[in-house]
Design a protein that fits this description.
The complex is a heterodimer of chains A (128) and B (346). Chain A has four helices and seven strands. Chain A is of the alpha/beta class and 128 residues long. Chain A has one domain (3-127): Rossmann fold (3-Layer(aba) Sandwich), CATH 3.40.50. In chain A, a hairpin with a 2-residue loop joins β4 (61-62) and β5. By secondary structure, chain B is of the alpha+beta class. Chain B is 43% helix and 24% strand. Chain B contains ten helices and twelve strands. Chain B has helices at residues 6-21, 23-31, 53-59, 63-66, 81-93, 138-175, 179-202, 210-218, 241-260, 306-313, and strands spanning 35-40, 48-51, 99-104, 110-121, 127-136, 208-209, 230-233, 238-239, 270-280, 283-293, 321-327, 330-338. In chain B, strands 2-1-5-4-3 form a five-stranded antiparallel β-sheet, with helices on both faces. A five-stranded mixed β-sheet of chain B has the order 7-9-10-12-11, with helices on one face. In chain B, strands 6-8 form a two-stranded antiparallel sheet. In chain B, a hairpin with a 5-residue loop joins β4 and β5. Chain B is rod-shaped. Classes of the chains: A alpha/beta (128), B alpha+beta (346). The A-B interface holds A 15-22, 25, 37-40, 43, 61-64, 86-89, 103-106 and B 152, 155-160, 162-164, 166-168, 170-171, 174, 242, 246, 249, 306, 309-310, 313-319. Chain A: This is Response regulator receiver domain-containing protein. Chain A: It comes from Filomicrobium insigne. Chain A: Residues 9-119 form the Response regulatory domain.
């Protein structure tokens, strides 16, 4: 278990319920303190404006619509995030090209590594 | 229109000379459906000395606007270095493969064409004209883009489906230890997904009717004399593919729960599934009730299982709310799903 994940508040944005439930369970097993899920961009943007999160995982495509508004809201608040996608081709939005990407399907270890990296980078940049 | 140079006049006269000498061949060149031009080899710009009717209809120009123009005047981008290099190669090597070049019509629209160039030589080997033909690739390019989009979409769906399968396996192996129980849990959910895909494929992936979705989802459960204990009542309202798949998964979970613990787990229970459309402040909604009765007394221990979570959150992405009410008399599940105005019936 990656101790940097312990007790963290994670926002999960994923439209496919089966996948979302599995990632929730993975995050709880990794020690995260609270996992909040949203299945639509509207719901996710609302959560970002009302609640505090340490990191987020956002599916790029939500039931045929782009999750870009969610990613923009997270970036505006400085919340670190990774983008999940089922696409193999490189179609990341230009200005978010350098962000972490998780390609579906991914395992619990991949999830843990990506989140740990996000949170470490976050801590370093806040120390500076 | 600029005055023609002496050279251009001579070159066009040469072409006129072929016309006089080679009557039927020239008529064929003029009227073939393949777009063709002749270009003057003795001038560095290779000005066009002849253009057939197909070339004019492909590019939208009148003949007088074409004759005397540089061979490359219809390039989409005059400075397209890659295209210029491919064209030079065609002129020098006359390759059999042709070159794919992006051109621009008079009206500004662009099109792709395969360009083939052959030199016309005198007996001493001197090249006097180039003969160029153009095969319009517009339809091919549209088809290629369509195929690419389909492949990308298929890849996206496959990756998502694999992640769903991963979830099904993950769930089965963490809640059970008996291999036969694990296998049964995995198979039941995979078969449910597969049935929903079949239903959508039959309808060209345009959507599925609610009655059809329920019949397909419940079909494996209508065995052992249970068929007449399940009643379905409502209009066959059509749902788009994504929500149809999600509904199929939810109905499978409800039916599985009924067989294991609910109204289909004894010999007397029954299920009624009914729905109606309601106009609310937030637009039209379909309110569906899955009502079980005469089953064994409902046990509260079911409430936090994976199946319940799937049912409660399975339609979140579509703005729906789902409520599971474990009443002593039998489970009542109420789904309230937004339905766009004018949603068609099957």
């Amino acid at each position: 278990m990656n101790s940097i994940l312990t007790g963290r508040r994670i926002l999960l944005v994923e439209d496919e319920t089966l996948i979302s439930l599995m990632i929730e369970d993975m995050l709880v097993e990794l020690g995260c303190g609270a996992v909040t899920s949203a299945a639509t961009a509207n719901a996710a943007v609302g959560l970002v404006s009302r609640q505090a999160f340490d990191a987020a995982l956002v599916d790029m495509n939500l039931n045929g619509t782009s999750s870009r508004p969610v990613v923009e809201a997270l970036a505006a608040r400085g919340i670190p995030f990774a983008i999940a996608t089922g696409n193999s081709v490189d179609d990341m939005w230009g200005d978010f090209r350098d962000r972490a990407v998780l390609r579906k399907p991914f395992g619990s270890d991949d999830l843990s590594d990506v989140l740990a990296r996000l949170l470490r980078t976050e801590r370093q940049s806040s120390i500076q | 229109m600029p005055k023609k140079s002496k050279q251009q006049i001579d070159a066009e006269a040469d072409v006129q000379g072929f016309k006089n000498e080679l009557g039927p061949f020239v008529v064929a060149a003029e009227t073939t459906r393949m777009a063709m031009v002749f270009a003057d080899a003795k001038h560095p710009d290779n000005p066009i000395t002849f253009a057939n009717d197909s070339f004019l209809s492909l590019t939208g120009y009148a003949r007088a606007e074409v004759l005397g123009q540089s061979f490359n005047f219809i390039l989409a981008h005059a400075a397209d270095a890659e295209a210029l290099q491919k064209i030079d190669h065609q002129f020098l090597a006359a390759s059999d493969a042709g070159a794919e070049i992006r051109y621009r019509r008079k009206d500004g629209s662009e099109f792709w064409a395969a360009l083939f160039v052959s030199p016309v030589r005198l007996e001493d080997g001197e090249i006097v004209q180039y003969f160029a033909s153009f095969v319009d690739l517009t339809a091919l390019k549209v088809e290629q883009a369509h195929s690419r989009a389909l492949i990308d979409e298929l890849n996206h769906r496959v990756k998502n489906t694999l992640a769903m399968v991963q979830s099904i396996v993950w769930q089965a192996t963490r809640t059970a230890t008996d291999p036969s129980v694990i296998r049964e849990a995995i198979e039941s959910r995979l078969m449910a997904l597969s049935r929903s895909h079949d239903l959508l494929t039959r309808a060209n992936w345009e959507g599925a009717g609610l009655v059809d979705l329920l019949h397909d989802a419940l079909e494996p459960f209508r065995v052992d004399g249970r068929a007449d204990r399940i009643a379905i009542e409502g209009e066959n309202i059509r749902f788009p593919p994504e929500s149809a798949l999600a509904l199929g998964i939810s109905f499978n979970e409800l039916a599985t729960n009924a067989v294991k613990y609910g109204a289909l787990s004894n010999s007397t229970g029954s299920i009624h599934v009914g729905w109606k459309l309601e106009s609310t402040g937030q637009g039209r909604r379909l309110v569906l009730q899955w009502r079980e009765k005469c089953g064994p007394p409902v046990s509260p221990s079911l409430r936090k299982g994976f199946g319940s979570r799937v049912i409660e959150h399975g339609l979140d992405a579509f703005g729906a709310t789902v409520e599971l009410d474990f009443r002593p008399a039998g489970l009542l599940c109420t789904m309230s799903i937004p339905v766009p105005e004018g949603a068609p019936h099957e």
